[in-house]
Fold:
Amino acid sequence: MNFVRGLQCVCCGATYPARTAFTCPACGITGILDVKYDYPAIARHLTRRVLAQRPERSHWRYRELLPIRAGARVPDLAVGWTPLTPAKALARHVGVNTLYLKDDGRNPSASLKDRASSIGVVKAREKGLSIVACASTGNAASSLAGMAASFGLRSVIFVPERAPEPKITQLLIFGATVLRVRGGYEQAFQLCQQSCERWGWYNRNSGINPYLVEGKKTAGLEICEQLAWKPPDWVAVSVGDGCTVAGIWKGFREMKTLGLIARTPKMLGVQAAGAAPVTAAFLSGKELEPIEPETIADSIAVGVPRNWRKAIAAIRESGGAMINVTDDEILDAMRYTGRLAGVFAEPAAATAVAGIRRAAAEGVIPKRATALAMITGNGLKDTRSARTAVGDPCDIAPDGAGLEAILELRGLIER
Ligand SMILES: *Cc1c(COP(=O)(O)O)cnc(C)c1O
Structure:
């Protein structure tokens, strides 16, 4: 059974059957579509007890709430159902009563993007396509390549000339055809669009593809179930294009609509100060003004976000807030999240933790609150900026000369 009832434009509100193009035919590229479901019918199927008995330890346990056919084949890789753990020492450090981390760096390709890509490859198969493509330097590409590999599809990835080496390596390992475009991201993006049109490949562009964001919402669904149907007061998510925060909010709203939770959390959207056009539009209430992004958090360095309307609407509806953090605060958060919780977050993921700390300091999040930070990607993907945060190891001679001095300095021994 498929519970999808159609698509609705977030701009003009028009509704369409589930098979229209990616964006609203009337509004064009700004007319992002939102997938609508038959919630009363889903509520009759999906109860707390039914969920508790499901064997899947992956996000496929929420099939009824996903835009895929009942019985559709899905990738074998385990996507989602990532660990949600309390972090006591970190809670004290950031200034809230209770803090949870949901570590989406534990997904197959080490980022939350696997939730979206896993839906993308199922939709590609549904259309009878065997080649998927995207233009990206980062997590969207590596996750698409990994999901394609797991699902028997081929992938073509367009990367700009300056794409970071570790991410290119990840693509090559997953067997993608990696096309390094002599140019910037915009040129890679255009080439990808044109190639998809010309050769009929499936285009993974989460900014405009309404189905991919449905995968991201499963993080919100999981938080409810993993916390025994008592979601935290605040959930912090870093914001680039805005699909992730909007998706996770949709998950919470659906859980409330289905009667599975009594109240929804407030969403804290966090941007890097050097790439914060969504925060600016949130605060001014005006149209978004594109900027030239400048931040170490590469996964959220977005100057022209495609999904800002959905993101702002989601945060407002939740009663939440938006906040910016500097690159120094992000590096600091990478350090203390590693030291106090044993979790290695990439810069765009540590941004969420830094956001909670600042929001608590400014009184946006009350000290007695329970908060959760989405760790959207693993730090091993970008060890260069991590090293900026933590510096170098202590070099030492093979005979151990100077060892005691170092240990004393570190407070590990007393002399
Ligand atoms: C993509 C991404 C984000 C932000 O998601 P948007 O949908 O672009 O707002 C945050 N963190 C990481 C690690 C990401 O890869």
About this structure: The longest helix spans residues 185-199.
